[in-house]
Specification:
- Helix 9 links the parallel strand 12 and strand 13 (281-284).
- This protein has 339 residues and is of the alpha/beta class.
- The protein is globular.
- The chain has 11 helices and 15 strands.
Length: 339
């Protein structure tokens, strides 16, 4: 077997460098994945720029992985060599701690961190993953086209199905970008009255083609007021990365509405009166676990939800990362690693 090739970060801010390594042997509860494609996500900056305390280097980023099972650890059951799998942000779980036993495996006490952050990820020809981190991938899905569904996809899909809205109710997607262009598709196919909110009108036609019922230009009008005019949102899926923008839209919630925060912005101010008199809420949402990834992939295959991607070879991972961080990519960036 030829060696492993990986794009590695040796120190915070030091960039990605191609390294040749021995192909690793999976531990008892691990599988080795032959990586076919890996998405390049904004969260990879945690590893590449050293934005999370306590990181250990060298490290290979990447948590939007699609590939095939290449080897299986001695204690692994239920998986076979050659099976198509995906690995997302969720690094796996122990199955027996207090959180796992109460169906909160995302908060496992014994498996911490994230794929590509606290353990090597998918910017490589091969990677190791705990069997509990694996999602099955439908045969019909192309790995390069579908890799972003393992982070941007699961995050938006999972937030939408836990947002409290029912079919026909108004759901606003705030931000038409890497997360938002998928959220609009999911929301429309779930039967929500989907409203796209974005700064400027440059993405209006795209948003409508993806399934948006209406479009609000936050540069020209108060987005909260515009949503109230439409009756108030049962849910707002907030994908933007600006605290000021997050703050500006909370008032658009309707009675019993919930704003699902999936864009990382740090702190922002909320008027408690806006929440109290509507019995509304603002809630953060973790992307999801392996089974949530499976549900996302199956839903996407059945309902033709597709990610709009720019594709680079593995060796150009640094260029791909810079393109993604520039915010000029339309809309996701993916590394093609193997056919």
């Amino acid at each position: 077997m030829s060696g492993l090739r990986a794009m590695v970060v040796n120190e915070p801010g030091g960039g990605l460098h191609l390294e040749q390594r021995e192909v690793p042997v999976p531990g008892p509860q691990e599988v080795r994945v032959r990586v076919h494609a890996c998405g390049v996500c904004h969260s990879d900056a945690m590893t590449i720029e050293g934005r999370m305390p306590g990181l250990v280097y060298p490290r290979t980023p990447g948590h939007e992985v699609i590939g095939t099972v290449d080897a299986i650890g001695t204690e692994v059951r239920g998986w076979v060599v050659g099976e198509r799998v995906g690995v997302g942000w969720f690094p796996g779980s122990c199955g027996y701690c207090r959180h796992c036993r109460h169906s909160n495996t995302f908060a496992c006490d014994n498996v911490h961190g994230a794929t590509g952050v606290t353990r090597d990820g998918g910017y490589a020809t091969h990677m190791l993953a705990l069997a509990s981190a694996l999602a099955r991938v439908p045969d019909e899905l192309d790995p390069v086209e579908s890799a972003p569904l393992l982070c941007a996809g699961i995050t938006t899909f999972n937030a939408l199905r836990h947002c409290g809205a029912a079919s026909g109710e108004l759901v606003a997607v705030y931000g038409v970008g890497g997360l938002g262009h998928l959220a609009i598709q999911f929301a429309a196919r779930m039967g929500f009255r989907t409203i796209a909110v974005n700064r400027g009108r440059g993405k209006e036609s795209l948003a409508r083609s993806l399934g948006a019922f209406e479009y609000i230009d936050s540069a020209k009008e108060d987005p909260a007021a515009a949503l109230r005019t439409l009756g108030g949102a049962k849910a707002i899926i907030a994908t933007v990365t600006s605290a000021e923008a997050m703050q500006a839209v909370v008032g658009g919630l309707g009675t019993n509405g919930t704003m699902m925060v999936i864009g990382a912005v740090g702190s922002f101010t909320i008027d408690s009166l806006e929440l109290l008199h509507k019995r509304a809420a603002v809630k953060g949402w973790y992307s999801g676990t392996a089974v949530d990834s499976e549900d996302t992939l199956v839903f996407s295959q059945r309902h033709k939800v597709v990610s709009m991607n720019e594709v680079y070879p593995l060796e150009e991972a640094q260029k791909a990362y810079e393109r993604m961080m520039s915010s000029r990519a339309r809309f996701r960036v993916v590394l093609r690693i193997a056919e």
